[in-house]
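I had to read the description of the data format several times before I understood it. Each protein is reduced to its one-letter sequence and a matching series of backbone shape codes. The format is easy to grasp once an entry is in front of the reader. For illustration, here is how one protein appears when written out as sequence plus structure tokens:
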Amino acid sequence: MENNEPVLEFYEKIENENERLKRSPLEFIRTKEIIARYLPEQPIKIIDLCGASGHYSYWLAEKGHEVHLRDLSQRHIEEAKNNEGKYNSKLASIDRGDARALKCGNGEFDMVLLMGAMYHLQEKEDRLQCLNEVFRILKKGGLAVFAYICRHASMLDGFKRGFVNDPEFIKIMDTDISTGRHSNPGNREYYFTNAYFHTTEEIYAELLQANFCDVLLYAVEGFGGLIDNEEYLKDEAKLNRLLHYIRLTEQNMEMMGISDHKLAVCRKRP
């Protein structure tokens, strides 16, 4: 099993995941929007794996669903517990857990969210182990939602934020583009941690290998991640216009590659 200590250390000591979605509001808005399309009116049992500080979990619980959160980071677990007072809901359980080896029963959940592991495991064997665990704990016909980072994310971010002026980042970026395996050997704060950046073809291939069906892939931010979207987020009319065109192009294969994040939605065959 892949050693995930560098990733765990990054989230325990460096990245403030509790605040990250506030820094990335378009990602948060779009992810909830896509997931909401698949939520039934009646309550269902959901597990949010790699659920971090619980913002998606509490949002789902506020909609009346029974939601369980699991994350590998003790810091995230404490933050998720502390966040309860910020929401009009409670989670059914909050506990530490590794998405590669879950203490859950077969066919226990109607929906599984896996919002981090697929882009933090560099070895395909470990990613497939996660997919197999999600498949195992899903009910027949159950829905799974997986988050991914696109193969060219460091290039897009590097030019947008000026990291390409650093020769060390250029080395990281070139490796990412050619292999998908992102590392940060100098432990630079803004250069992320160990990760795997998927091509669109790899996402479909791994999900199909794990026997999921009805796979649909969505660009989360789409072209919205390339522009200065702050003015759109401050004005409701402008935001609605931006969201309209992101939705219009969310499954366009040419646009898929420029979206920092993607969501794959699929099912366990009935």
Q: What stands out?
A: The chain has one domain: 5-150+198-268. The chain is about 40% helix and 20% strand.
